[in-house]
Specification:
By secondary structure, the chain is mainly alpha-helical. The chain contains seven helices and no strands. It is globular, with a radius of gyration of 17 Å.
Length: about 200
Amino acid sequence: MRRAPWWVLLPSAGAPLLLIGSSMFAQRMEGPAYNPVKDTISVLASHGAPGYWLMTGMLIALGACYMITAHGLREAAFPGRLALAGGGIAAMALTLAPAPLRGGALGHGSVAAVGFVLLAAWPALAASRGQVIVPWGLRVKVSLVASAVMAAGALWFAVELQVGHEPGIAERAVTFAQALWPLVVAVSCRVWAGGPVSPAT
C-alpha cells in the first residue's frame, strides 16, 4: 500500500480553515442583520451580499482542497476518493448557482444536496477492505460511523430548513464536520505506525 504524501496535509487542513475563516469575515461584512443561528452560509454567498466575492472564492478554493486531498489519499479506496473529489466539484458548482438573498432556489438546493450526499458517503466508500494494514481513519467501523454522523447532520439541516428554528447552526455543524474529516483521515495516514490492523476494526 502506497502511503499518502506529506503534502496531503496542506489541502486537508486548508478546507476547514477556509470554511471557518471566510464565513466569519463574510458574516462581519454582512453586519448585525445577519443571524448565524437562523441564516445559512449560503446567504453570505448570495448575489448582492457584501461577502459575495469572498465566499465565491472560498467555495472554489474549498472545492480544490477536496479534490487535491482526494488525489493524495492513496490508502483510501478509489470510490471514496472519487466521492470526495465529486464533493469538491459540487462546492465549486455552487458558485454557478448561488442562493438568493431571500427564499430558496431549486438549482442551488440541488447542487448543495449532491455535495452533502457525496461528502457524507465518501468515508464509507473510502474504507480499506481486504488490507492487512489499515490507517485508523480508513478502518471500516470508523468510516461507517463518520458517514452516519455526517448523514444525520445533513438530515438535521434539511429538517431545520423546513422548520426554520436553527438552520444556520445545523448547516455549520455538518459542513464543518465534512470539511474536517479529510484532515482526520490524512493525519491518520501520515502518523499511523504501520502495524498490522484488521480492516474490520
